[in-house]
Amino acid sequence: MDLKQLNAFIAVAELRSFSAAATKIGLSQPSLSRLLKQLEIDMGVMLVDRYHRPLHLTEAGTFFYDKISTILTEVDTVVGMTQRLSAPSSALNIGFVPSILYGLLPEIIARLKQSNPEIDVNLKDISSYQQMDALKSGDIDIGFGRFAHQDPWIQQILLRHERYVVALPKAHPLANVREQRLIDLANNRLILYHQTHLPVSTMPETVSSTGTPKTLGQNKKNNTSHHQASTVEQITEPLLYLFAQYGISPFMTTTVSDLQVALGLVAAGEGITLVPASLKTVRTEQISYQRLIHENVTSPIYLHTLKDFVHPHIPDLLRATYHVYEQRGITYRRQKFESQR
């Protein structure tokens, strides 16, 4: 059994065609057929049912594909990491979620370049979830994200917590209230925009804005129409989770594709949303941003990188980050990545 045989099998399993699989991996169809046949002989198992069109995997073939595809992905990751370790790029490729760009990231990058003018920095807009695969493939060397991730290939450090603020239309009755409570916002349409969700947690019994017990099953939610949820629901959407922590469930929600669309709807008077405080300079002509009294309603900022390979310039990035935090008077705990030299 060798990698050529395994790659031939993976191609056939995914494309369900010998000719398409041969084209994909750059072999003639007879050569691919021989590799697959030899793999089956070596294993003593028939993996592909050749008598159906399109081709079907046997039960054993389906099991083998599920397991071996994961292993081959890890092999590709290890090969790429080994190549980058032996010849690290002089460029530092940094992934970020859009909300980070409105905060201190531009100042951090400016500080990094000022202290290390030889560093070539590339910035890439990429979601927290997608950063995990981008780190493994080498598309980015480090990522600024908003969510904790459990991945055996990735290590992360928490930089700081950023307070949320409520974004309201300028004409909203609460637009000039300086200290906002989540319970007072519950009867508004809450605009949701996160593409990455939290780990599963169970929705507790909630309390309505009038003080009467209310479960999520009594709420109305919609994208364009209302529907009822079950009494107990798994809360993974970050903004709903913040409300749930205080036993509150918004009366109505709308889900949009990203944060900019959410703020556009707020500006148009279509609802309210919560955003990290660094975004309170966006659309200020139409939107009022007000402080929440809840100190633990925050959005964390994480740095992610590979466990076994830390780009040589990542320590410089961390130093620049902490320098900016100190200048701004931001509380943080100095950390470094495990394999950082």
From TrEMBL:
Belongs to the LysR transcriptional regulatory family. Residues 1-58 form the HTH lysR-type domain. This is Transcriptional regulator, LysR family. The keyword Transcription applies. Residues 202-228 are annotated as: Disordered. One of its GO terms (molecular function) is DNA binding. Residues 203-228 have a biased composition (Polar residues). It comes from Psychrobacter cryohalolentis (strain ATCC BAA-1226 / DSM 17306 / VKM B-2378 / K5). Coiled coil: none annotated. Pfam families: HTH_1, LysR_substrate. One of its GO terms (cellular component) is protein-DNA complex. The lineage of its organism: Bacteria, Pseudomonadati, Pseudomonadota, Gammaproteobacteria, Moraxellales. SUPFAM superfamilies: Periplasmic binding protein-like II (SSF53850), Winged helix' DNA-binding domain (SSF46785). Signal peptide: none annotated. Keywords: DNA-binding, Transcription, Transcription regulation.
